[in-house]
Amino acid sequence: MSYANYRARTCAKQKSAYESSLFAGAILELPFSFYVGIDGGGTNCRARLYDAKGNVLVEGQSGPANVRLGFDVAWHNIIEATNQCLVKNGLEADNFSRVAIGIGAAGVSSKQVCSAFQECAPNFGYINISSDAHIACLAAFDGKDGGIIISGTGSCGYAILGNKAHQIGGHGFELSDHGSSAALGRAALKACLLAYDGIGPCTDLTNFLLSEFGGKPSDVVAWVKTAKPKDYGKFAPIIMDFADKGDEVARNLAATAAQDLERIIYRLNQLGAEKICMVGGMAQRLAQWLAPWTKPILAAPKFDPTYGAYLLAKGANNGFNGKGK
Amino acid sequence: MSYANYRARTCAKQKSAYESSLFAGAILELPFSFYVGIDGGGTNCRARLYDAKGNVLVEGQSGPANVRLGFDVAWHNIIEATNQCLVKNGLEADNFSRVAIGIGAAGVSSKQVCSAFQECAPNFGYINISSDAHIACLAAFDGKDGGIIISGTGSCGYAILGNKAHQIGGHGFELSDHGSSAALGRAALKACLLAYDGIGPCTDLTNFLLSEFGGKPSDVVAWVKTAKPKDYGKFAPIIMDFADKGDEVARNLAATAAQDLERIIYRLNQLGAEKICMVGGMAQRLAQWLAPWTKPILAAPKFDPTYGAYLLAKGANNGFNGKGK
Questions:
Q1: Within an 8 Å CB–CB cutoff, is residue B217 touching chain A?
Q2: Which residue of B200, B218, B263 is in closest CB contact with A109?
Q3: Which CATH architecture has domain A181-299?
Q4: Candidates 3.30.420.40, 1.10.510.10, 3.40.50.2300, 3.40.47.10; CATH matching A3-142+304-313
Q5: Could you give the ipTM of this predicted complex?
Q6: Distance (Å) from the C-alpha of residue B229 to the closest C-alpha of chain A?
Q7: What's the pLDDT tens digit per position in A14-28?
Q8: pLDDT of residue A320
Q9: What's the rounded Cα separation, in Å, for the pair B248 and B205?
């Protein structure tokens, strides 16, 4: 069944089901048979089905569920991944009324976006939506207080402290996302052009990067016209390899990225996050460059983000109920 | 007459006229009656008509002549501004065979672009094309050796030294153009978001900038999705005003922009440019922030860029004849 059909059929039902079950704070006590946790990222959407006792039953996976790609795309993939779980578990597809669902989706950046996205939902028995950062933070500390830094293609600091959510950074590639693979890649290309012009250090890294563009700065300039953050981010592992080998420019880039993350760690800690987990594809490599004072604060996440989405399905605070930022 | 008609009528003639008159280095001795200098910028195109003795006769002006807007647009506006000159001087429009024209156009960044652009020219008696930076440098030193830094919406260092042209920086807004109004505006918005997140200093400037977006970082993030360099650049005069008043963040931004320009000054000087002229809308304001060692090197330009285009029309080296970069 298409997303449009879902909506036509279920919109009226959904609202009343949602309104009757909405609350904030404590864990939901409604007797649902099944709980689904959704980790909706920009590349794919992961779903995990739990029973009422919290046992993991099955998992599903589909395409991207970043709401910036459009609510239709996101819902289509969330429904697809959820139905995979239901069918794998011997249940009927589309039978959502017995299911409590928790969704953490990339791009859910405000209460307004959250509400608008939820308006388009099919008739789940209960639904609770937040951002990908929120479920990662819920999961990392099993619903208790703590902070995370996501360092992947982009970056973002996030903390849940006394039922209040705090976001630091993560305002996008153009002006923010310091300490991400995309920011690192862009900084390296800048350094590469400075080296070419003789106004910055010329090293193995800058020579390598320029050689990737046939030795022609004009090809670098042409490339950036259409480059996306993930394109810049592809250079990040190479830059970190050069840094490990002692390349001066690469070391400076890695150190600057680490300092950017340190500022976020300091701020989250200052706000009250006693422990902070580094997550995302760049976390491991940049963590090695962090100053010693960060070590006692850093912790390993307890669970993966899909588990945080399950906590949302169980009624955990979604950060958008007036108590959040 | 449309540009397309020009081309159909004149293309064959043009090539032979051009090929017979092409040479490099010294000043042209062909006995033209009129010389036109064209300063083709991204906002408008200025033309100036000179007689064979070098007297200024009249001027014309039309729309943008940045070749990145398309060769048709650029040629249309160059022809328009040139014909204004001819008609004002009592001559016949489109009668270009008696005219030697020199053109400095924004976006003429390589010999390839220069040649392709020239292929589309109508039948001038003589034609010589280069970049906007090249004519600004020719004009600043009356055709002799020297360097310039253009600091406007973008930035670029340029020097003509012993018949060889050198460009430093100016690789575009995404990765380069340090010390320009656009780069300054972007850096200020970054500082504004850092202040909002509590991970950078919060000052009158950062408060002012955030208030320009209704106090909402999400509105800053939405704005940058479509912002052009000139949009970022609009904040530059305000930032410099705050810097003059002693605002900490604004002072740091101005000092960083000045340091970026100092690196270009140092490099051009190292390459052999004994004197360097600062030109463009940001030049005056940022020059005040430069380190004292730059003062003996800096000079005022002798002439405006249109005069540099006239020197091209007289046969000055265009920087694209194999001796240039």
A1: yes
A2: B218
A3: 2-Layer Sandwich (3.30)
A4: 3.30.420.40
A5: 0.85
A6: 12
A7: 433 334 344 444 455
A8: 87
A9: 9
